Structure formats: structure tokens, C-alpha cells
Amino acid sequence: MWLINSSIGRKVVMSVTGIALILFMTFHASMNVVALISAKGYNMICEFLGANWYAVVATIGLAGLVALHFIFAIWLTIQNRKARGTSKYAITSKPDKVEWASQNMLVLGLIVVLGMGLHLYNFWYNMMYAELAGIENEIAATDGVGYIAKTFSSPCYAAIYVVWLIALWFHLTHGFWSALQTLGWNGKVWFNRWKCISAAYTTIIVAMFIAVVVAFAAGYRPADFNEAAEEPTEEACYAQKACPMLPDCPMMKGGCQDKAHCCKAHGESGRMMGE
Question: Which residues touch 126 (CB under 8 Å, ≥6 apart)?
């Protein structure tokens, strides 16, 4: 199959998967900006996605795209180094008209992958995976804005994310126009235009991500932040026998502000205790 057996085919796979990942990041960045406007709105999106079958299928597909992109990137790098042979040691200066990002795409890609692993741990593991596995955390699985606030309240995490996103910017700025060039959109007129478009487009995407990190790290919270925690359902209160008479409210982890709040929707204490 020419997509695997030829260097051109492998570059096509890299380009197509790269563009698909850029489209996903466009959606993800747009979704994250909602957290700056409305905590409830952001949590509604998280609940809509959550552990629903379509979100799980999309996540598996996304993981496949990342794996393909990463594997083919390493494959092409090894192939290029073999093609240069020992001549690479004779290079003493930077080649003309070659961008820094172009020369360091693999390193940038590794930083992006490591940052992605940390991001998956902070969010995907505590949200979608926790919901699928039935794991109860202090913050509800659908309280996405709660996890954003918790993660970026740590200066260390905020700094790591900013460095990660800067590396992502360098990677995308070169990768975007390079992918389009590989796919044949590299005419004399459009070559420089695509470079400008890719720089502007990726700057907007990364700026949206960084805006959320910096805003929450600085202590910003949307007006409805305190109201956005997941409300316990009547059935859940009955099932957990949650009542102010009990020493602990099992629904505290689901967003209860206190034991009375957990049962305020019910009128009979006996019914609440499951009698």
C-alpha cells in the first residue's frame, strides 16, 4: 500500500491526521472559552459529551489519529536520518530558509505528547474515565469547570500548561502549512498565504487555550461558578438515604453545599431515609 510503502504516502498520512487533529483542537478551544463565560454552559457541554457512546467512540477515534500521527512522525524522522547518512555531522550552521520549528518538529512533538498525557490525567481520567468506571471523586465527573479551577489554581500546573501550549503553537504553525503543501496546495501565490493563514489560525487556537489557563490561574471565576456544581437528583437522594439526620451526606461529592441542601427538595424525613 503506497500510503505505507512510500515516503510520499507516509507524509500524506501525517498531513491528513494532522489536519484532523487541528480541527479537533479548534472545537476543544472553542469549548474551553465557554468556561470563561458560563460555568453552567461549560458543564452542560461536559455532560452532553461525558461517557455517552458517541463521545467514547469519538475519543477512541481521536486516540487512533494521535497514534498514527506520532508513529508516522517517528518513522519519517528515522527515514530522513538514514537517507542523510553521516552527512548530518558535517552540518555546522542552520540551512537557509529553514524554520527553527521545522528542524525541531520531533522534539516539539514529544513535548506535545507528554503534555497531552498530563492533560489526559487531569481531565479525561477524572471525567470520562471516572464516569465509565464508576469512580467517585470530590468533584463530579461532569463538573468540568470545577476541574479547570482546581488544576489551574496550582501555579506549577499553570506554568507547565503554558509551556506546553507554546510548544504546541510552534508545532502547529509549521505543521499546518506543511500539511497543506504535502497535499498539493503549494502554488507560488498560495505558499506564502498558507504560511500566514496557518500562523494566524494556530495563534488564535493557542491563545484561546492560554486565556483559560491564565484567567483561572489568576483567580477568575465566571459569575455562575458557585451554582454550576452538579445537583443531586431526587432518586439519588433516596438511594443514598441522604438526610440532615444522618452524620454524613453521601451526596456531598455530587455538589451538595450541606446536608440540608441535599434533601431540601423532599418534605418527609422518613421517606428520605428510605422507610
Answer: 137, 139, 141, 147
